Amino acid sequence: MADTLEFNEIYQEVKGSMNDGRLRLSRQGVIFKNSKTGKVDNIQASELAEGVWRRVALGHGLKLLTKNGHVYKYDGFRESEFDKLSDFFKAHYRLELAEKDLCVKGWNWGTVRFGGQLLSFDIGEQPVFEIPLSNVSQCTTGKNEVTLEFHQNDDAEVSLMEVRFYVPPTQEDGVDPVEAFAQNVLSKADVIQATGDAICIFRELQCLTPRGRYDIRIYPTFLHLHGKTFDYKIPYTTVLRLFLLPHKDQRQMFFVISLDPPIKQGQTRYHFLILLFSKDEDISLTLNMNEEEVEKRFEGRLTKNMSGSLYEMVSRVMKALVNRKITVPGNFQGHSGAQCITCSYKASSGLLYPLERGFIYVHKPPVHIRFDEISFVNFARGTTTTRSFDFEIETKQGTQYTFSSIEREEYGKLFDFVNAKKLNIKNRGLKEGMKQSYDEYADSDEDQHDAYLERMKEEGKIREENANDSSDGSGEETDESFNPGEEDDDVAEEFDSNASASSSSGDGDSDRDEKKPAKKAKIVKDRKPRKKQPESKKGKDPNAPKRPMSAYMLWLNANREKIKSDHPGISITDLSKKAGELWKAMSKEKKEEWDRKAEDARRDYEKAMKEYSVGSKSESSKTERSKKKKKKQEKQTKGKVEKKGAASKSLSSSKSPAKNMSESFKSKEFVSSDESSSGESKKEDSEEEGVASLPPSSEESASGSD
């Protein structure tokens, strides 16, 4: 006989709803994994007390009762599977799988039996229906009548809200059958009553969903959120998972509580309770219990007096009471060094955290997607810009989630993470050997949380940042400065002082044929040329001495290869962390040796800088002298041009009118427009200088040559 039996598409009845999943029977016990929530029910073989096989609406069902009174129902079996299950129960669990059919006579008069957490209404020896008492939200009594109210089921189209039982009076003195019935129900019902004092209270905590500030009162069996407008009572049995997530700014922490069923506010359902804490906020906490009770109940997980960060205290108390592991981000690290990715889901911006067994998005709306329910992922081009991309996830149920506006720099890190987790990538196509290697029946929150370990990780990051800062300071600057004034423009811009140079060289005599307005010429002349960038903003001189290294960097360069050989395959970030730890643990005497080397390097650098500054001053003085000489020449040239203009004006006025009519005349505007072009100005300068230097007898011939 096989050691295990597996069944797919089995339905578990929980609080009136049928949740599909996978069922496995083994020597150790019975395991059922919910496909929707990922929650795993594990029943040890030693705890099983009774097994019942019966016909139900979805074929045949299996009812298991445990020794502590819990009842588990699984439907969806075929009739032919009874023999196989019966033999398995006999061989491995030493139990007889009894066949009991439900009574279908339709009578409404019978006997109520209480067994564990189950109320059974029987006619004779056959049950008519059964009510799990954990579904009961309230129990009220009247004269010969008991009314049971139930929790609303959001997944069902029609919910059973109330059942009334008529209890006939009895002849026994001192015993009220109605009260006895109600007490049996209330002893096992999920009725939330704030009896006694709270174990502890956290005041004015910031809550993102539902939004507001709430006082959180911690009771032994439930959590009470007390706000200005709304109150919520959350049984610990409805808590599915706990998450502790660092914010991208490294100054805040998210504490996320996953709930099933969710809490309700009108028609709104909140499947996640998200609290936001500042890392700097500390608290001293005293539990409202004596030390013996604390030790007996929590077995060392909590103490009567505790102090520390507020988020650590809340997460520690919740972990002890709910008895659930706290999931923290895994080894993923984004482009910026954070353990999350900034993106948008639907209309809101938030943070996507890749976990060891899934993804979680906070905060509006919160989304948790397990790896075992993902069909494939897809990397898509951003719709509005090429600077970002979209990350799409499609589940096996056909639901699609699109996380958009992810920075392009995050692509490599996210792709490597998805590839390492062996998720199917749609862009690449399905490849052989990409099947997930994790256990299909394992719970999806296997990560242990250690607050001290998290704190040590944070300290390691700080040491790494310090090491990187010192290495950046010692390195040579490689980025070039952007100096638009120093670049040669291929095409002159409009209204530039050199704009006509390119046009005049290409068009030939087009300037003479076309008549240009005088105003345009004036605008071009008055336009100031672009200012060049100051000399101080130029790039770093490659001949300048390099800055000296710190003692730590000198030691790291000398020991980098040794660290790599001692830790083969170590990454760059882990190497920096390891080096920081070794440097911190080094004795003061050894550090002094490297401090002396750093001091010698600093003195050498200062000496080299003095020599360099003396040489640069002499070069700058030569440059200044050449600039002054150039300016002087420009002034002399300008004076000659002014004299030339005056000479040409006197020549034109002394000419006869007839001769002026026959000769070509150049107006002031025409001369100005010619001067604006670099090519024509040189020609005019040479001609006008010749006119100014001619004797009076040759003036007419000179003007004629013009």
TrEMBL record:
SUPFAM superfamilies: HMG-box, PH domain-like. InterPro entries: HMG_box_dom (IPR009071), HMG_box_dom_sf (IPR036910), PH-like_dom_sf (IPR011993), RTT106/SPT16-like_middle_dom (IPR013719), RTT106/SSRP1_HistChap/FACT (IPR050454), SSRP1-like_PH1 (IPR048993), SSRP1/POB3 (IPR000969), SSRP1/POB3_N (IPR035417). Residues 545-613 bind DNA. Residues 474-496 have a biased composition (Acidic residues). Its main location: nucleus. GO terms for cellular component: FACT complex; nucleolus. Belongs to the SSRP1 family. This is FACT complex subunit SSRP1. It comes from Thalassarche chlororhynchos (Atlantic yellow-nosed albatross).
